[in-house]
Amino acid sequence: MAIYLHLQTHAMGPKEVSRIIEAYERTLRVFCVKDRDDPLTEMIAKKIIKIAQTGIKDPAQISALAIKELEIR
């Protein structure tokens, strides 16, 4: 899973990792991504981590911001 590869390169505590994974899973569901080899998973993982690094802690808010930024227009 793309998110786990990225989490290995960032120093984070268990609570932060849990929030990021929750936001990631939520975002995958919104985009209906079931294939974990889909290139979209990589884009979502990077976006989720980038947003989480801004200090936002709520997984729902992280996910919502990622969805907004990733939406295809």
Please render the helix and strand layout as text.
Layout lengths: L1 H6 L6 H17 L8 H14 L6 H12 L3
Helix pairs in contact: 2-3, 2-4, 3-4
Features:
73 residues; mainly alpha; globular
Mean pLDDT: 89
Helix content: 55-70%
Report low-confidence residues grouped into runs of 5 or more.
Answer: none
Shape call: globular
Q: How many runs of DSSP E, i.e. beta strands?
A: 0
Q: Which range does the strand content fall in?
A: under 5%
Number of domain modules = 1
Number of helical stretches of at least 4 residues? 4
Largest sheet: none
Structural class: mainly alpha
Radius of gyration: 11 Å
- First-last Cα distance: 26 Å
Q: Give the SSE order as H and E letters.
A: HHHH
Any overview of this molecule?
This protein is mostly helical and 73 residues long. It has one domain (2-70). Helices cover 67% and strands 0% of the residues. It is globular and about 30 Å long. The mean pLDDT is 89.
Gist?
The model has no long low-confidence stretch (mean pLDDT 89). The chain is an all-alpha fold.
